[in-house]
C-alpha cells in the first residue's frame, strides 16, 4: 500500500484577490514577507505578519485572527512554510501560488506603506 501526501491547497492570485477584496471579503490576505519588502510594496488591503515572527511564536494580527487566510510572500516559498505553520495552529489557510511576483504581473493593485501606488521590491 502506498501513502500519498495530501497536496497543499493553493490559490491562484486571481482566486486570492476575489476572496480577499470587496465590501465583505471571505478571507484575509496575509503577507508574510519581511518589513522592508512590505514597505516597498504590498497588495492593497493585505495584513502584514512576517514569517520570521510567526516562526518565533508571534500571534496573528488581530484583523487576521479567526478568519480564513490566503497567505502570500514574494514568490511562494515562504507562504508555503507559513501555510503549514498556521494550519498546525488550527488556522483555515491556503497558499497563494506565485506570490507578489504573480500578483503584480496580473496587474493587481500594489501600494507602499503610505497607501500610494507602487511596485514590489
UniProtKB/TrEMBL annotation:
It comes from the Bacteria. InterPro entries: GlpE_sulfurtransferase, Rhodanese-like_dom, Rhodanese-like_dom_sf. It holds the Pfam family Rhodanese. Residues 23-112 form the Rhodanese domain. Transmembrane segments: none annotated. CDD domains: RHOD. PANTHER family: FAD-DEPENDENT OXIDOREDUCTASE, PYRIDINE NUCLEOTIDE-DISULPHIDE OXIDOREDUCTASE. This is Rhodanese-like domain-containing protein. It comes from [Kitasatospora] papulosa.
